[in-house]
């Protein structure tokens, strides 16, 4: 074939790979293994987005390279198929979500296959398949049995438009992450997972893994470990103390008032003595309308009401100080109460200024009339009796000793991380395998009865009071207690979409196992995932959740590594041509099918890897796509200038070794764009030279194969090679041969440059001198002169001193 026609070759190779089981995971466990993982997609009705091929191609490159390097590679794909968009589509169009999901998966599969990924399709998984969610439910039961799944009445984030409870992580900027709707607090009985039990391990074990730094930082910040103290303040006339959490016990002498959360139980407990109880309740109602995010925003104008009838005593100096309520203190953090130190805390300072409360400086170094002085690394304690003169760090130690000794305070570690709200009042999710018995309480469905199948319902709409549609299925809900045989009700909430993805990488290891989520031997061979690439947006959601589940399974002896993923990297987004997010409403969505149809899958793959630094977002450019297609056209036409020689020619040898070195290391550091640039430069060099050996061409094909697998297999065949590229070995380079052997030196006469001369680095002075003296300009300058001395600075200058 004269012209490069992707249509004629891409499908052909996809069929060959499938027939030859080219990417099926090997059974030879004596080989080193490599488990490459990308986040499995949610099969939406829109089909594949051009954002998907970026990470998928990236790890396909790594996976293909590893196979050529002799590894047994597992690079799997599957479907994260439970979730709201499908359910919403089903509600609107009266089609069962199962049918919608099936259709969407078929479409996605076709699209992914057209891209030529080296997935082992025999290991495909689907979170909505009962054979899969059986194990999601099983893991949930293990969590329940260990007390890590519990039901709790608690205020949750409630999206008024989706009518569904949201995890903190799903509320972004105070609104619903999915629909942008208003999020309010609503008290509901919810299944919770005790991720907080793993807070320390989730931070500390980050030392064991190779994650890009910003991922580690945001996980640490999200967990928000904060070391401080709890301190009791006496309430005059009451037995009960007001307990607060502070990270700055050193500032106790500067506490001039207290603030409790509007939801604090003290208010209702002493409602009869509180003279302005109604004001407090009104304020509480206003606060309920705001999200935690809004309430704690620094810039927000402070509001609050002083409690009329209750005060507190500062334990360090016996002073009686007022108690206020304000929405900037959250009931869900610490003890829901603070001591306010306006001199050294910004929010307290704003509040004190607004309500004219006293500000007492206790750490010198700022101007507390102008602003709160929050620096803890400079300045010594003042106005603080026995703490005066100490640095903040030392004062913290001393006051803690003092408090502990007196029994009014102790060291306390708090976390921002909350337990994970695991209930969804929705249909399209895994049923939670628990029944509620009036006598026995919450009882697990026996493991032998798993999977607990999602029943067929008439309508998928959540009920108006926010119950799952399963609640309307009386026949299903009414059941008997597995424990006492008495009357019981099934749980009607389902699991969140994060459930199935919390352990999916484990199922890839042994997807057809019916005895366990995966066999022990298989787990031991394949764990941990060697390289996991995914979106930054999952850092504090899926990535953290799955680390938690894995650690739990590790503690139960069910997996053999403390961490699921050895390495985690992240890709940037692909934006529209105008640098805006691609969206239907903006009309700037690029459909991968169109690009494949017009230019071929290899061009799309090459382009998405060439588009820019992998970790940064990049704007789509049709010109860029065409450029990549031109590059592949040029690679194609090289077949016409290939000789039958296997060895590298002298004039290309250095360039060959340099290119192998560059591509090899750039792929490893995900610098795909510069790796491709190096191959483009090699191709330019090939054309400049005009004729290339077969050996040179084959090396190019091997290097390019992970990026553009179809064209390279086809060319390999065209030049008469018997095997396949995928069965070859990755090219090697010799370090010594990557170094340019020739240099250009300056030839000087009496210090003045007369000519430049290209020499080989290993040439001796005499040889260089002889060559220099043959140059016309040098000859002329030497004419009639006596050479007194010749100085040679190797590789740089030859200076001839004459008289
Ligand atoms: C007195 C103080 C003095 C504070 C000072 C800070 C600076 P992190 O680091 O986030 O843990 N706080 C405690 N519980 C709170 C709640 N439920 N809602 C809002 N704020 C709360 O912050 C801990 C600090 O946040 C605590 O230390 C407390 O204010 C406040 F110069 O206590 B601090
Ligand atoms: Zn019972």
From TrEMBL:
InterPro entries: aa-tRNA-synth_I_CS (IPR001412), aa-tRNA-synth_Ia (IPR002300), Leu-tRNA-ligase (IPR002302), Leu_tRNA-synth_edit (IPR025709), M/V/L/I-tRNA-synth_anticd-bd (IPR013155), Rossmann-like_a/b/a_fold (IPR014729), tRNAsynth_Ia_anticodon-bd (IPR009080), Val/Leu/Ile-tRNA-synth_edit (IPR009008). The keyword tRNA-binding does not apply. Residues 653-767 form the Methionyl/Valyl/Leucyl/Isoleucyl-tRNA synthetase anticodon-binding domain. ATP binds at residue 584. Keywords: Aminoacyl-tRNA synthetase, ATP-binding, Coiled coil, Cytoplasm, Ligase, Nucleotide-binding, Protein biosynthesis. It holds the Pfam family Anticodon_1. It is found in: Cytoplasm. It catalyses: tRNA(Leu) + L-leucine + ATP = L-leucyl-tRNA(Leu) + AMP + diphosphate. Residues 221-403 form the Leucyl-tRNA synthetase editing domain. Its EC number is 6.1.1.4. One of its GO terms (biological process) is leucyl-tRNA aminoacylation. A motif ('KMSKS' region) lies at residues 581-585. One of its GO terms (molecular function) is ATP binding. The keyword Transport does not apply. Residues 12-219, 410-607 form the Aminoacyl-tRNA synthetase class Ia domain. Its main location: cytoplasm. GO terms for cellular component: cytosol. Residues 754-781 form a coiled coil. Belongs to the class-I aminoacyl-tRNA synthetase family. This is Leucine--tRNA ligase. The lineage of its organism: Bacteria, Bacillati, Bacillota, Clostridia, Lachnospirales.
């Amino acid at each position: 074939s004269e012209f490069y026609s992707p249509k004629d070759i891409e499908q052909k190779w996809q069929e060959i790979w499938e027939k030859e089981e080219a990417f099926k995971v090997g059974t030879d466990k004596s080989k080193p293994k490599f488990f490459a993982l990308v986040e499995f997609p949610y099969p939406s009705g829109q089909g594949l987005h051009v954002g998907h091929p970026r990470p998928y191609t990236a790890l396909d490159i790594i996976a293909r390279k590893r196979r050529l390097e002799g590894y047994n590679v597992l690079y799997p794909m599957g479907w994260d198929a439970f979730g709201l968009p499908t359910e919403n589509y089903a509600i609107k169009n009266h089609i069962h979500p199962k049918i919608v999901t099936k259709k969407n998966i078929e479409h996605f599969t076709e699209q992914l296959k057209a891209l030529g990924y080296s997935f082992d399709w025999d290991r495909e998984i689907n979170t909505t398949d009962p054979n899969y969610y059986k194990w999601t439910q099983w893991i949930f039961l293990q969590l329940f049995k260990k007390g890590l799944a519990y039901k709790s009445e608690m205020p949750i984030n409630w999206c008024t438009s989706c009518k569904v409870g949201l995890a903190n992580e799903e509320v972004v900027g105070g609104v619903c992450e999915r629909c942008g709707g208003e999020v309010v607090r609503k008290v509901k009985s919810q299944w919770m997972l005790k991720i907080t039990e793993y807070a320390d391990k989730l931070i500390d074990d980050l030392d064991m893994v190779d994650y890009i730094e910003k991922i580690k930082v945001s996980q640490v910040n999200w967990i928000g470990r904060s070391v401080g103290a709890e301190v009791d303040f006496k309430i005059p006339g009451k037995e009960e103390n007001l307990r607060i959490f502070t990270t700055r016990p050193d500032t106790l002498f500067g506490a001039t008032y207290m603030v409790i959360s509007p939801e604090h139980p003290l208010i209702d407990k002493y409602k009869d003595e509180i003279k302005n109880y109604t004001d407090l309740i009104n304020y509480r109602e206003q606060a309920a309308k705001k999200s935690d995010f809004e309430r704690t925003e620094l810039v927000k104008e402070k509001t609050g009401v002083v409690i009329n009838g209750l005060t507190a005593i500062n334990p360090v100096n016996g002073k009686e100080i007022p108690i206020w309520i304000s929405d900037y203190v959250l009931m869900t953090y610490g003890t829901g109460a603070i001591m306010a130190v306006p001199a050294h805390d910004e929010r307290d300072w704003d509040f004190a200024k607004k309500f004219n409360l006293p500000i007492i400086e206790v750490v010198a170094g700022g101007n507390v009339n102008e602003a709160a002085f929050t620096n803890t690394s400079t300045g010594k304690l003042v106005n603080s009796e026995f703490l005066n003169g100490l640095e903040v760090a030392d004062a913290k130690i001393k006051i803690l000793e003092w408090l502990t000794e007196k029994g009014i305070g102790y060291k306390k570690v708090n976390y921002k991380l909350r337990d994970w709200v695991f209930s969804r009042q929705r249909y399209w999710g895994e049923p939670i395998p628990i029944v509620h018995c009036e006598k026995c309480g919450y009882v697990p469905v026996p493991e032998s009865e798993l999977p607990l199948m999602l029943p067929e319902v008439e309508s998928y709409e959540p009920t108006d009071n926010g119950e799952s549609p399963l609640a309307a299925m009386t026949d299903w809900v009414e059941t008997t207690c597995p424990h006492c045989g008495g009357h019981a009700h099934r749980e009607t909430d389902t699991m969140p979409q994060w459930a199935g993805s919390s352990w999916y990488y484990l199922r890839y290891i042994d997807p057809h196992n019916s005895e366990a989520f995966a066999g022990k031997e298989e787990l031991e061979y394949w764990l941990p995932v060697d390289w996991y690439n995914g979106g930054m947006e999952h850092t504090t959601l899926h990535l953290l959740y799955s680390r938690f589940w894995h650690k739990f399974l590790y503690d139960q002896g069910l997996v053999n590594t403390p961490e699921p993923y050895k390495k985690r990297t992240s890709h940037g987004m692909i934006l529209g041509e105008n640098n805006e997010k691609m969206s239907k409403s903006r009309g700037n969505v690029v459909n991968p099918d169109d690009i494949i149809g017009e230019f071929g899958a290899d061009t799309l793959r090459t382009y998405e890897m060439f588009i820019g630094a992998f970790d940064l977002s990049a704007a789509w450019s049709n010109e860029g796509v065409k450029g990549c297609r031109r590059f592949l056209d040029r690679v194609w036409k090289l077949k016409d200038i290939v000789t039958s020689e296997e060895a590298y020619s002298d004039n290309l040898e250095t360039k060959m070794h340099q290119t192998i070195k560059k591509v090899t290391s750039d792929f490893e550091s995900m610098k795909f764009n510069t790796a491709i640039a190096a191959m483009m430069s090699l191709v330019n060099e090939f054309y400049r030279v005009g004729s290339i050996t077969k050996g040179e061409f084959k090396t190019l094909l091997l290097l390019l194969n992970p990026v553009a697998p179809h064209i390279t297999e086809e060319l390999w065949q065209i030049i008469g090679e018997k095997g396949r590229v995928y069965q070859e070995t990755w090219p090697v380079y010799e370090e010594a041969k990557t170094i340019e052997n020739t240099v250009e030196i300056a030839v000087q006469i009496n210090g003045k440059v007369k000519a430049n001369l290209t020499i080989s680095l290993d040439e001796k002075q005499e040889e260089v001198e002889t060559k220099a003296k043959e140059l016309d300009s040098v000859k002329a300058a030497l004419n009639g002169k006596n050479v007194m001395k010749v100085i040679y600075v190797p590789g740089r200058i030859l200076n001839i001193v004459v008289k």
